[in-house]
Amino acid sequence: MKPALSSKKLPHPYTWDGMNNGQWVRESIQTRLDEWCPKLFGYHLLKLGGLSCELTSAVCNIQHQVNLDIQNPLHNVIADGYELPFLEKSFDVVILAHQLDYANDPHRLLREVDRVMMDDGYLIISGFNPLSLTGIASLMPWRRRTLPWSGRMFTPNRIKDWLSVLNYQVVHCDRYALFPMKKYQTMWTWLENGLGDWANPAGSLYFIVARKRTYPLKPIKPHWQLKRRLSPLGVMNREQDALRERHPPASSS
Question: What sequence ranges are listed for the domain Methyltransferase type (predicted)?
Fold first, then answer.
């Protein structure tokens, strides 16, 4: 398993147009985001990164929405994702569209997002699955410096493990796009639907919705003493009471 921390400088895409099949990937994420937006409530929403900024959330019930990035022109806050200029517990929803794939330190990025996340808030993450056709293509030498294959892809199960450490509960995980080809898209979609759910683990994209919990996901059972402890004094008193019941004292006339 490759380490999460990387010393290499990774190319960070700030727009979907700079990525191969980027608009197709954006539309697939947008479809799933539109399904979840009506279920999200709160006061503040954060879209972290240029790719997240280009996702629309007009149907979301949260009115105040912040787009944070350095290069994307749709931003309204310019800042580094590792040092968010917000107070703790500021946002009810945070969207990370393919940010972990191109982060040098994804653990640090998740910890910083967790710092500004409200209790019971929602974290939405999308990314590329390395155990897929896209992941196999990233192993080819002539594609290692081309987006999106130049990123560091992590499996959805590994993302779930990171979230569980931060006490997040994954409420939804969708793996899709078994055939990530834009050409003849209708045919590939029909074929993927025909294969059924067994092919989902090999999907090129994943869409995770997790919720921050304020209590442990695995409750700790208390070590209660349910059995009554015996003591010599208690045993003696019970024996004396039993003798009195068997031989009651004679009443004086």
Answer: 74-125
Domains of the chain: 16-212 (3.40.50.150)
Instruction: Output the pLDDT for position 203.
Output: 86
When the pLDDT of each residue in the chain is averaged and rounded to a whole number, the result is 84
Say if residues 104 and 2 touch (Cβ distance below 8 Å). Answer: no
- Using CA atoms, how far apart are residues 202 and 210, in angstroms rounded to an integer? 21
Name the pairing type of β-strands 205-212 and 168-176: antiparallel
Outline where 16-101 has alpha helix (H): 22-36, 50-53
The helix (run of H) or strand (run of E) holding residue 157 is: helix 156-165
Residues with Cβ within 8 Å of 249's Cβ and at least 6 positions away in sequence, in order, are none
DSSP 3-state of 110: helix
Q: Which one, of 28, 34, 32, 67, lies nearest residue 51 by Cα? A: 67
